[in-house]
Design brief:
This protein is an all-alpha fold and 64 residues long. It has 1 helix and no strands.
Amino acid sequence: MSDMRKYILEQGREIVRLQDLNAELEKLCSKAIRELESANKAMQNLLIDMAELDLQRLERMLND
């Protein structure tokens, strides 16, 4: 097998390996984005709950 042929095959294998790594990275990034979106929604809900509690506290203070 000529050196050029070996080189081309090597490069082809490297391209396939990098494509596989890229696909795995895309999956991991998608999962991370979904988890961040979920955490963000949970944080928003927590902030809303805290604001409601603060509002109730203020209303009680004004009514006392």
